[in-house]
Design goal:
Blueprint lengths: L8 H8 L13 E6 L4 E9 L2 E6 L40 E6 H5 L5 E2 L6 H6 L14 H14 L11 H10 L1 E3 L9 H14 L10 H19 L7 E3 L2 H6 L22
Antiparallel strand pairs: 1-2, 1-5, 2-3, 3-4, 6-7
Helix pairs in contact: 4-5, 6-7
């Protein structure tokens, strides 16, 4: 009988926190910082020289989900007052889309965290909250930075908290994967966690499978974990690897192409 795999100390520490020091990040890293008392996280790609490329709504604008979330979730644009802009970034308080900011403006006073790629299924499920890691492997840093810099010049579409948000942007830069589905959820672990939690709560048939609060809680958490797992970009099958140039130039015909048929590298620019 084979022995069960034992987690290493770094993996055990990673369950508790992905916090990282500023001098530990490298170009091509997917970083994030929690906002509004850990209500949600803002994500971006570190490109070196103290700069981060990220996707956002303009500061002070509501996200426009059409739900109750509009009342308390706002933009993650750098929030320096317009009369006292960052000396490096300038006034970005009304800027939206894919932007480049210094690390300090990106963090907005928050802590720095590193999004993990290529984690084991066990470690992924052990993470109680989505939007911190994925089973999908990352592409090489030069590919990641090429996508981020290309999208900085060309945009990443219209921001949507569920379908196309800052985490979706960072995950695409790291993997080149896009989701093609009729379900209104993109690649974001935060969005899928929200959906998973909702599914666990409203799954009324589960109420009859157990008695007592502890049993119901265990079943509900199981549904939550399974929903998160099957929605992860590294597990789901409705994803395609799309070169960043094709994403901008030919957005229409891409849905009919096989997932592994295309890869993008810095050499393919303009193809």
């Amino acid at each position: 009988m084979s022995e069960s795999r034992r987690w290493t100390m770094p993996e055990m520490a990673g369950i508790l926190s992905n916090k990282i020091l500023k001098d530990e990040i490298k170009p091509g890293d997917h970083i994030y910082s929690w906002r509004n008392a850990y209500l949600y996280a803002h994500h971006g790609i570190y490109v070196g020289d103290g700069m981060v490329i990220h996707f956002t709504r303009a500061a002070g604008q509501e996200i426009g989900t059409g739900t109750v979330l509009d009342r308390f979730i706002f933009s993650s644009s750098p929030s320096h007052p317009s009369d006292s802009p960052c000396p490096r970034c300038g006034d970005q308080s009304r800027t939206e889309g894919v932007i480049s900011s210094c690390l300090e403006c990106f963090l907005c006073g928050g802590e720095l965290y590193l999004f993990k790629y290529g984690v084991s299924p066990g470690l992924f499920i052990a993470k109680p909250r989505g939007g911190t890691c994925t089973i999908a492997p990352s592409d090489p840093p030069e590919h990641v930075m090429h996508r981020a810099e290309f999208l900085l010049q060309n945009g990443f579409g219209v921001y949507n908290i569920f379908k196309n948000n800052c985490e979706d942007f960072a995950i695409y830069c790291k993997t080149g994967l896009l989701v093609f589905t009729n379900v209104s959820i993109g690649r974001s672990g935060q969005a899928t966690s929200f959906l998973a939690a909702t599914t666990a709560i409203v799954s009324s048939p589960l109420r009859f499978l157990t008695t007592g609060f502890s049993g119901l809680a265990a079943v509900g958490y199981g549904v939550y974990c399974i929903s998160r797992y099957v929605s992860d970009i590294g597990v789901r099958r409705d994803v395609m690897k799309i070169p960043v140039e094709r994403l901008i130039i030919c957005p229409g015909p891409l849905e009919s192409e096989p997932a592994a048929a295309n890869t993008d590298t810095p050499k393919e620019k303009g193809s």
